[in-house]
Amino acid sequence: MATTQPPTATPAPGDSYVQSFARGLQVIRSFSATAPRQTLSEVAVSTGLTRAGARRILLTLQTLGYVESDGKLFALTPRILDLGFAYLSSMPIWNRAEPVMETLAEQVQESCSAAVLEGTDIVYVMRVSTHKIMRISLGVGSRLPACCTSMGRLLLADLPEPVMRARLEAAPPEALTKHTVTDIDALVLKIAQVRRQRWCLVNQELEEGLISIAAPIVDRAGRMTAALNISGQANRTSAKVMQDTMLPALREAADQISRLL
């Protein structure tokens, strides 16, 4: 599934902006589940770089061990995970949160995840899976559109409304299922309700048959820093059952993790 990247303006090169470094990150981000191996030309096209520019960056990444090549196709190596784990290791909260999430997943017999907001996407920072409930594979670092996920809407609800609306307008929602809400005004109203109730349930808007419910993880100042969710199959757990029987346990787990901050 393709996900939207957060909109960014391109600053002018200067003392505060290293263009070559930015282009290197752009090349890394061009690799994905749908494009795990690419030719030089494909990388150049997907990043908007010249072939010569893309080649210099790919060869640099290859020398550093982040990219490998068979002479035609380029692919990321496992060493690229060092970049993501640098974030996780700098945030030991997630190591401490994992036992809480494991207990919750065992209690409700459903998968449990934590995510943060980045631009118009959520990024998974921890996941405890008990069932294979989605067609796509999710793990730490996976990205999904914030607008049609329970954690995403909850995190969007913590933003000032003009900022939240601007993010929705920057990446207009796509109809991923027949249930997906794509009208921005309707989404703003749903997110306003989420803001009032401090939890969010999304029923089959990301994927047919998938239902999830999320609660906030907050810091000492009460600022929402992440979201915790439970996700399951609609044919096994209805929205009402999830709200009535799982939301209290989810909220308690989110509160436990919040106290660790």
UniProtKB/TrEMBL annotation:
SMART domains for this protein: HTH_ICLR (SM00346)
Coiled coil: none
Signal peptide extent: none
InterPro entries tied to this protein: GAF-like_dom_sf, HTH_MetabolicPath_Reg, PcaR_PcaU, Tscrpt_reg_IclR_C, Tscrpt_reg_IclR_N, WH-like_DNA-bd_sf, WH_DNA-bd_sf
Start and end residues of each IclR-ED domain: 79-261
Domain HTH iclR-type residue range list: 18-78
Keywords: DNA-binding, Transcription, Transcription regulation
Pfam families in UniProt: HTH_IclR (PF09339), IclR_C (PF01614)
Gene3D superfamilies (alphabetical): 3.30.450.40, Winged helix-like DNA-binding domain superfamily/Winged helix DNA-binding domain (1.10.10.10)
UniProt entry tagged with the keyword Membrane: no
Domain of life: Bacteria
Record's protein name: IclR family pca regulon transcriptional regulator
Native species: Variovorax ginsengisoli
